Amino acid sequence: MDGDKTFLHAEAFEQIDTATEVNQAAEALIATVNASLRLSDTAAQPLTVGPVVDAQGARSHFVTLREGVSARGRAGVVTVAIDGAAGQPPPTEPVQAKRTRVIGSDAEVARAVDS
After folding, report:
1. Residue 110 falls within a domain, yes or no?
2. Is residue 17 part of a domain?
3. Residue 102 is assigned to a structural domain of this protein
4. CA dist 112 to 8, 100, 104, 108, Å?
5. Looking at residue 36, what is its pLDDT?
6. Among the listed residues 1, 7, 20, the one whose alpha carbon sits nearest the alpha carbon of residue 47
7. Packing angle between helix 107-114 and helix 95-105, nearest 10 degrees?
8. What's the confidence (pLDDT) of residue 65?
9. Using CA atoms, how far apart are residues 84 and 20, in angstroms rounded to an integer?
10. What pLDDT is attached to residue 19?
């Protein structure tokens, strides 16, 4: 336990190579546990899967969006894996350089910023 969090340990997880695969296995296991809980106690709160924590303590967080759900947020550097293909994020333009470029490219924007 870590505060109010409980960690799920399974020998099967140790045989899995990636945090993504551990997360998928944990989701499947917890879905089965939740189904059993609902059968035995209809008022039971479902368990949820949090970050995958490796042996060194590094955490991998996962977000699952259902169809029709939108999300908005801010983050520093984000790497998105689509169909398991992860790579380095593209270089980003510094914020001040981007503002300068946008202001200089449109007379209306430049006028609005100057007022």
Report:
1. no
2. yes
3. no
4. 55, 13, 12, 6
5. 87
6. 7
7. 110
8. 61
9. 8
10. 87
Q: Which residues have C-beta within 8 Å of that of residue 70, sequence separation ≥ 6? A: none
Q: Kindly state whether residue 2 falls inside one of the protein's structural domains.
A: no
- How far apart CA 49 and CA 30 sit, in angstroms, is 7
The number of folded domains in the chain is: 1
- CB-based contact 86:77 (threshold 8 Å): no
Q: Identify the burial level of 62 via C-beta atoms within 10 angstroms of its C-beta, where 0-12 means exposed, 13-18 middle and 19 or more buried.
A: middle
Which range of residues forms the domain containing residue 69? Answer: 11-89
Task: Enumerate residue ranges in the chain where pLDDT < 50.
Answer: none
pLDDT at 84: 55
**Which conformational region is residue 15 in: left (phi greater than 0), alpha (psi within -120 to 50 degrees), or beta?**
alpha
The whole-angstrom separation of Cα 60 and Cα 51 is: 5
Rounded to whole angstroms, the Cα distance separating 23 from 44 reads: 23
Residue 77 to residue 103: CA distance in whole angstroms: 25
Would the pTM of this model clear 0.85, i.e. be above it? no
